[in-house]
Amino acid sequence: MPRYTVHVRGEWLAVPCQDAQLTVGWLGREAVRRYIKNKPDNGGFASVDNVSFLVRRCNGLGLLDHEDPLEVALEDNEFVEVVIEGDAMSSDFIPSQPEGVYLYSKYREPEKYIALDGDSLTTEDLVNLGKGHYKIKLTPTAEKKVQNSREVIESIVKEKTVVYGITTGFGKFARTVIPVSKLEELQVNLVRSHSSGVGKPLIPERCRMLLALRINVLAKGYSGISLETLKQVIEVFNASCLPYVPEKGTVGASGDLAPLSHLALGLIGEGKMWSPKSGWADAKYVLAAHGLKPIVLKPKEGLALINGTQMITSLGCEAVERASAIARQADIVASLTLEVLKGTTKAFDTDIHAVRPHRGQVEVAFRFRSLLDSDHHPSEIAESHRFCDRVQDAYTLRCCPQIHGVVNDTIAFVKNIITTEINSATDNPMVFASRGETVSGGNFHGEYPAKALDYLAIGVHELAAISERRIERLCNPSLSELPAFLVAEGGLNSGFMIAHCTAAALVSENKALCHPSSVDSLSTSAATEDHVSMGGWAARKALRVIEHVEQVLAIELLAACQGIEFLRPLKTTTPLEKVYDLVRSVVRFGK
User: Coiled-coil stretches, from where to where (predicted)?
Assistant: First the structure.
């Protein structure tokens, strides 16, 4: 008998259908009838006959015709949404799909795998896992390590040894011994009580990264999770079933407890979960739709799933990768601006940078030389002012290797810390199979990634700060040979006047966001966790700073391409002309 899972006003209803010839309209009415029946106030409706509604797929949000037979319009166990006409959406309503649903309607299950061993994951790998490019499997070595650590836990339970988090309560209740008969209940209660985050849910890419990173840490074999449970977690990841994880609520010690608890809550079939097939729905329905069963937690497994710095670090991986990309792009954009402002290439001379050989500075100078006027890539614009009387350029042009360079070095420094962190065991207690014992420590503390990501925000912000000053030079006729605000008919058209204001606003906002969150600490858990990292906010604001940097540099790129139009028919170098052509393929010249 076909069955459909129907979303009505935030409620999920399983609706069986005995006759596949019944229509989409019947399914909508039956779902509303069940909704009214289950509500004390009838959901505010006198009867189903008074309800007007639309029916649409959760996957892609395509509207369905009421008259179409179910066997034609839908697949068995498909997820659909009934939208009541005239409904006002409440502030806490969870839509069936995340923002940017059009991106997920084309999701295709990956065929390639990444083998995780807990020791060799890269930031690039994790970002690709987040994008859904790969499934996960364990290496044989990782499987053996996981089995060995689980044997230690089984021994502790069998011998009724008192060990924190396994046979005791948590935090302030660490001295409370739990009876063996309640050890599984202890783990479920831990996950439920710690699922206390707030805010928007992580977008699918970030939740996928979070889940993948937790799997990688568990694969190290120091957490005590059973291989059976870990393989169930991997099956959930490979099916792209992603729990509802609010972005706020972690103080970054003892790890990212709240977000990781929400992650675990979905795995045990509670709370909300998302998949490309279902959209947001009750976790038990989403798992069932993919042929999966909720995980039944064994002793220590709840703690194994929620104790660590993976929220901070997974967001940190995205931040590092995006920062690396925009740092390279900043050199290209600045080179184009320098050409438009008729700057000199002398400041990028090899000998200048050889006597101050910071790696980032040397690399940036090399990129500028590769893009600007040379025997290999001559520039007609550069040739047009070769014999002008200008001796040197403003700092925003001349000092790009020194300013962009330290940003590159900052990114490299942070990437090293994040790479170490994503391959680290961050549980408490740690299970050492070689010693046959558990040891309590503090690897869950997020100070390392928190400090690093605060530093990343401060460093990358400088790309926007210097870019905004270059936009000013492009727009201000007293600082260039270009028309005011890069428009021929000034007054009639305002050109880039307000685009520059937007850049200035973003740079100013970044100045506040660059205040380090990790300088703050508030004691929690009745003073048992008396120093915390605040790394969750460090990671989220680092991403916001980087987003602003991307936007400011995009404005500069548009301004530079606008400016070069006033130097035509002269051409710049071949690489920069290709950049110009790429921009003009999507943005036309503003007259």
Answer: none
Q: How many CB atoms lie within 10 A of CB 590?
A: 15
Q: Structure tokens of 140?
A: 């044989």
Q: Are 418 and 313 in contact (CB under 8 A)?
A: yes
Per-residue pLDDT, 106: 62
582 against 50, higher pLDDT = 582
Domain with CATH 1.20.200.10 in the chain: 315-585
- Judging by DSSP bridges, how do beta strands 53-57 and 79-84 pair with one another? antiparallel
Q: Are 3 and 76 in contact (CB under 8 A)?
A: yes
Alpha helices per DSSP H over 91-247 = 101-104, 123-130, 140-159, 183-194, 204-218, 227-238
> Which two three-digit tokens encode residue 525?
């858990």
* pLDDT at residue 91, as a whole number: 46
Other beta carbons within 10 Å of 469: 18
Query: What is the average pLDDT across 126-136?
Result: 96
To the nearest whole number, what is the mean pLDDT of the chain? 92
Checking if the pLDDT of 566 tops 60, the result is: yes
Q: What is the mean pLDDT of residues 273-286?
A: 88
Q: Over range 78-104, report the average pLDDT.
A: 64
What pTM was estimated for this model as a whole?
Answer: 0.89
CATH hierarchy code of domain 114-307: 1.10.275.10
Would you state the pLDDT for residue 59?
77
Cβ neighbors of 474 (< 8 A, separation 6 or more) are 337, 340, 341, 480, 482, 486, 496, 556, 559, 560, 562, 563
Catalytic residues: 164
Q: Cα(first)–Cα(last) distance of the chain, in Å? A: 63
Q: Which of 222, 238, 239, 243 is nearest to 303 (CA)?
A: 222
Residue 8: predicted pLDDT? 87
- How many angstroms separate the CA atoms of 318 and 418, rounded? 10
Neighbouring residues of 49: CB distance < 8 A, sequence distance ≥ 6: none
C-alpha 297/C-alpha 225 separation (Å) is 9
Top pLDDT among 88 and 26 is at: 26
400-422 helix and 447-475 helix, angle to the nearest 10 degrees: 150
Cβ contact 513:539 at 8 Å = no
| Predicted confidence (pLDDT) per residue in 492-531, tens digit | 999 999 999 999 999 999 999 999 999 999 988 888 888 9
Q: Which CATH architecture has domain 315-585?
A: Up-down Bundle (1.20)
Spatial neighbors of 498 by CB under 8 A, at least 6 apart, are none
Which value, in Å, is the radius of gyration of the alpha carbons in the chain?
28
Q: Centre a 10 Å sphere on the Cβ of residue 176 and count the other Cβ atoms it contains.
A: 11
Q: Which pLDDT does position 36 carry in this prediction?
A: 86
Provide CATH code, domain 3-84: 3.10.20.90
Give the span between the Cα atoms of 135 and 161, in whole angstroms. Answer: 38
Q: Tell me where in the chain the CATH 1.10.275.10 domain(s) lie.
A: 114-307
